[in-house]
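[job 0417] fold request received: Coenzyme A biosynthesis bifunctional protein CoaBC
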Amino acid sequence: QRSGDLSGRRIVVSAGGTHEPIDPVRFVGNRSTGKMGFAIAEAARDRGAFVTLVAGPVALETPWGVHRVDVQTVREMLVALEQAAADSDAIIMAAAPADFRPASPADHKIKKAPGQERLVIELEQNPDIIASIPGGGIRVGFAAETRNLAEYARQKLPAKRLHFIVANDVSAPGSGFGTETNQVVIFHDDGRVEEFPLLSKYAVAHLILDRVLERLAARERP
Ligand code: PMT
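[job 0417] inference complete; emitting structure tokens
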């Protein structure tokens, strides 16, 4: 067991987007690179936690000392996180799971017919992962928005039964998908709001873990 203020704690982190198959060679996906979630996994490890990192399809090296589970789709991510969250002290959802998936993925590569101008792919809703998982300890979500950040983030807090939500404006420069930095606002379930400047994703990770630790301590106080 490593030393640190999260020593012995079990922290579950999700990272990256998902690939929802259209056919055997194509998918619906998004721009998440996994950098935010991997930074949280590294920071939690550096503070002594046992870390399970459930990663969508990303191009990042596994951080040493972290237990990584790779998944492709939202439904696979849900199964992996359900298992990992069964005995966790905190679950931190930095992944960007697809809200919709192709309703009937084709068994074979879709070919274009002569003269075909359009292809219509019907999408159906995926499960909401964090809303479907009960417990998990301290529950932390992210909100990726391009407008009305505060309003949408506040709506997601009770809907997903979160202790706090880390909102990032993914259209702001240096923030959100693929960047090394992030600018976040944290909305708590008791109404507190904390705004931060543009920071490295590793620094944002520590801010999140500081708050997870405070919540764990408050919960365990006699
Ligand atoms: O990976 P990077 O390139 O570093 O980019 C980081 C990031 C922008 C992906 C990250 O900072 C971030 O904002 N992650 C959340 C992306 C997202 O899916 O946001 P959302 O507002 O759509 O979802 C709200 C919350 O519900 C999130 O915690 C999400 O993980 C979760 N969710 C969403 C959909 C779904 N089907 N199940 C979920 O659990």
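[job 0417] notes: The longest strand covers residues 138-145. The chain has one domain: 10-98+124-220.
[job 0417] exit 0
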